[in-house]
Sequence to fold (263 residues):
Amino acid sequence: MDVGGKIALVTGAASGIGFAYATELLRNGAKHVAILDLASSNGEESAKKLNAEFGNGKAIFIVCDVTKAQELEAAFAKTVKEFGSLDIVINNAGIMDDARWELEIGINFTAVVRGTMLGFQYMGKDKGHKGGVIVNISSVAGLVTGPSFPVYIATKHAVIGLTRSFGLPYHFEKTGVRVISMCPSFTNTQLITECVGRTLDSVEQDHIDKVLSSVPAQTPESVAEGVLHIIRVGENGSIWVVENGEPAYEVQLADQPVKKVSA
Ligand SMILES: NC(=O)c1ccc[n+]([C@@H]2O[C@H](COP(=O)([O-])OP(=O)(O)OC[C@H]3O[C@@H](n4cnc5c(N)ncnc54)[C@H](O)[C@@H]3O)[C@@H](O)[C@H]2O)c1
Fold:
């Protein structure tokens, strides 16, 4: 898909990588972007920044806590009412906070399920629309295991399972909507810089510090370039990684478990 002239909705886009997605979309010719975020975020300011750079009315900020079903539904409806249609959905809002793991599951997974279903509803050919693309933001944490943030890691695995299953031909043939996922590695945002104290009690902070200090962080902009690339070329159901500021690459995951052979 060429993003030129397209209408996009990005959750959690007032700051961090979500804001970089909104910026990169407009820089590449998207017609409009709706940025959804909490009332307490700097969403108004972020929309103003985008409008100053790309032209008045290009971006709107919609107050939306993605854990609130009605707010998320209303935000999709408002985007379509304001801009006429919808082509691209990026389910990006996320937290890394195992100390509040129920909220973390609500934001990182339940809201991604709802955002995917709303994407089908507002873009699906079976609903009278023209098709589109949904990008669900996972993480490299969704491809591995690790002791530090077990619940965060599990939510990101869940996003990959959801994307691969909704990304099967059965759904695409009905909806004309591709569902793909990006897995960024460590990226320089407040999700990482403010993660101190956000672990389960059983995880020692020393361990987290060691992990974080050993991993080079990339910029939100390089992740956004990767997401623009996969919106253009990513096949339905595909899973991609962007790490160390390098171009995004697709990963292949096994369809069947491999039987363990005992020694
Ligand atoms: N930063 C990284 O290293 C990294 C790596 C891999 C994946 N990710 C994923 O990328 C996404 C964005 O992360 P980030 O690093 O930009 O984080 P961030 O904390 O910088 O930004 C997250 C944004 O989401 C918003 N948000 C939080 N709760 C919300 C809610 N209930 N409803 C609506 N908006 C909400 C915040 O206000 C903020 O604007 C997340 O899904 C995260 O898991 C981040």
Observations:
- The mean pLDDT is 95.
- The first strand starts at residue 7 and ends at 11.
